[in-house]
Each structure stands twice: as C-alpha cells, then as structure tokens.
Amino acid sequence: MIPASHAHRVDRLRAAMRAAGAEVFLCDHAEMLHWLTGYTVSETFYRGCILPLEGDPVWVLRAIDEVPCRAATWVPRVVTYPDHADPHVAMAEALAGFGATRIGADFTSFGFTAWTRDRLSQLLPGAQFVDLNAISNTIRNVKDAAEIALIAEAAAIGDGAMAAIAAGIAPGMRARDASAIGAQHYLTQGADDYWVGPISIARQARAAQGHGMGFLHATFTEDRLSEGDILHVELVPRVRFYSARFMRSISLGTPSAEDREVMARMVSLQDAQFAAIRPGEEARAADALLREGMLREGLRDEYPNITGYALGIYAKTPRSSETVISLHPGATWRFEAGQVLHLYTTAKGLALSETVEVTETGCRRLTTTAREILVAGA
C-alpha cells in the first residue's frame, strides 16, 4: 500500500506515464528516486526503481544496499544482485517480469546513459523506450508542506552557520578555516553532512573585468585573510537531502562606503524581484527586474548567468545545482505556489542570495540573515 506521503507523487507520475503511452517507468535519477520511493543511493552499480501503471513497484540494486533500502523505502519489493553480476541483466529481468513493451524513462537522467539504453534494448529486444523528457526534475517542481518544512529546517541551520562564521573569522585565517566553522555547525545542528559550500576570498573580484564572478566557485587556496578583505560565503546545508542555499559577503573590518552602497543597491533591486514573484507571473519578468536593473545602474558590465533556480533534493549526482527550472530572459514558465527557489546576484566582489518559497500571495524568505555586508567579529 502506498503511504499518503507518497501517493500523490505516484499518481502524478502515473498520469504522465499514461499521457506518454508508457506501461512502466524506469526511475534511475538519484533525486527522483528519493522523491518517489524515500530512498536513494549513488550509482556505483546501476540501480533503479520500476513503477507500473498498476500494482507495486520494484527496487533493483546491489545486495550490499538492500538493508538501508528496505529501512527507508515504502516499496515492498526489493530485488538485489551480487557485485559480480551484470546490473543491467538484473534490471532487464525485473522489467521483463512486468511484461511491458513500452518502457518510460527520462532520457536526461544521469543514470539513463546511452550505454544503459543500448544494453537494456539488447536484453529486451521486443521493448521500446519512451522518453518522458526531464520529468525527473519538472515533476518535483512544486513542493508539498513536508518538503518545504525540511528546506526551512536547512535554512535555519544555514543562518546559524553564517552567524558562526562571521563571528569566528579574523585576519590571518584562511577560507578553509571559515569552512571548518561552518562544517562544525552543520554537523552539530542536524545537517546531513559537512559539505559547507563555496567559500573564497573575493579581493580579486574588485579588479576583474566583465561580470567579475570568479570568486563564486573558486576552490580553496592557502591565502590568508587581511584587514579590508571580503570573504564570499555560500552555504548549502541539507536536511534529509533537502537543501537551502544563501550567500553573504563578510568584511574583515568596517566595510567601505562604496561597498555598503553597492550592497544597498543590490538589496533594493533584489527586493523588487521578490515583490514581482507570485503565482501566475512569468519568470522572465522577475528576472528582468534584477538583470536589467543591475546593468542599468552600472553594477554589472554583463549578465551571462541566471538569477535563480529551483531548490529541492540534492543526492549523489554529477551536478551541484538544478537549473531546468531557472530565471533568465527566455524563461516563459510561470511561478506556482509551493516552488522553492535560490535567487541570487553578485556585483563588484559582493554577493547576495536567499532561499525563498513562492506562496499563494507572493514570495517569502526562508533564510533570515540580515541583508547587508556582515562584519567579522561583530
């Protein structure tokens, strides 16, 4: 029996399967597996869950993962194989057991590689694979109350970690020292793990040409913080795989008047973007308020990046962000209540972002740290 927490998810997926003419759906996307079944695992060996239009689904995975799978999932049937076996053979045998000839799959899933498609087609010569394109991402767009509660819990951990980093860093320390402070807060306060997020010294961004975003995704160096430096901090805590994200700039010493003015203008433009977000409005309109404002006011010379993207589950996949649903000049999709987004902007070595929920009446922040340049030790 499907539990109430997942029944509406199964119903939505089955409706999409019927629309595509698929008799079963092969789910092998890490985040989708967690959303659909309550369990996910890395693809050390090929694994997945098969959902039929009627009846019970079945998990197929390596034997070593059976116990944690059964402990976490509502799916009653778990088929396993030893590590020396061919995982695709095990999956093909499970698919054959349903007698389906039209097998739905998400061709954009990292799990559904060309090798997986070709190998399963070889093992199931009478079957046809049907593409439910990008469904693993789009079907999870609107979150239910339980999902939003987990993201809000992650946001609270992030706020606390940001405060701890701001209080604990000082000249002579490195970006990795700030990360260590954040990791300790994550682990003691209930986050899934110690992956803190990108932290770097943003001093070089002031002199950079163009958008000057090199500091955003910089890797650790052994550079030491000096008085007057700006530390860029992006936090990405997860609670039961659900992540909140936000960015702040932390000044070592009193921020300059110029930096304070830049941040104030960034806050004002992003506040206007927030105010434009409500159900039914086009994403590109909210994007334009921030993007065009930043360019018009000379805060950026160019704006090649998106201004926000959907948040939710983050499991073990090659990507670190979900950008299928994102804000950019061509984004014609419309906001819906229950979406959760990471909205961000940067200028002149400073960064600002929030995790927000789209509500029935507008947009509310789930991250609550003051929207200003933070001062180390203050």
UniProtKB/TrEMBL annotation:
Residue ranges annotated for the Creatinase N-terminal domain, each copy included: 9-142
Superkingdom of origin organism: Bacteria
Domain Peptidase M24 per the UniProt entry, residue ranges: 150-360
Record-given protein name: M24 family metallopeptidase
Organism (species): Pseudooceanicola albus
